[in-house]
Amino acid sequence: MSTANSARLLSNRSIPDSAVIPVLLYPDVVAAATWLCRAFGFVERLRIGTHRIQLVVPSGIGALVVAEETSPASAGGAATHSIMVRVADVDSHFAQAQASGAKVLNPPTTYPFGERQYTAADRADHVWTFTQTVADVDPKTWGGEWVREKGDA
């Protein structure tokens, strides 16, 4: 990994602190998140409409996102997951991935929730989103709904 990507990541209230964030896709996001919390003990952190919910491990060390099924289908059918990875410099990471033959699904874009992201597929059509925090943004400013704020037990 390049030196630029091993630097300390900035903090942003709109994204969990975890460096790697699995994104699990479901047809009913609210029902899935409710079940994951009840069955496996996850805790809701942030709700973005009914299409995306951030969950955290009760210890606070780890997170996942439950999202609506909208990703492109892979060779074996509809995608059921993707992986989000936080990096320090998304543009240099993108250049390296593109030079290595990654299939670009969305080029680097800066979003109002304080993240600059790109999405690519690997050689087996697994979907990866790489994200760089560019600002600390309160989710309330772009429509997110706090369920559990940082530091809450």
Main β-sheet description: 9 strands, mixed
Q: Within the CATH hierarchy, at the fold level, what is the topology?
A: 2,3-Dihydroxybiphenyl 1,2-Dioxygenase, domain 1
What is the CATH architecture assignment? Roll
Low-confidence runs: 1-5
Radius of gyration: 15 Å
**Helix-strand makeup class:** mainly beta
Question: How many angstroms separate the termini?
Answer: 35 Å
Helix percent reads 10-25%
* Tally of helical segments: 2
Which sequence of strands runs across the widest sheet? 6-7-8-5-1-4-3-2-9
Query: In total, how many domains does the architecture comprise?
Result: 1
H-E string: EHEEEEHEEEE
CATH superfamily: 2,3-Dihydroxybiphenyl 1,2-Dioxygenase, domain 1
How would the global form be characterised?
globular
CATH class reads: Alpha Beta
Strand content: 35-45%
Give the number of DSSP strands: 9
Oligomeric description of these chains? single chain
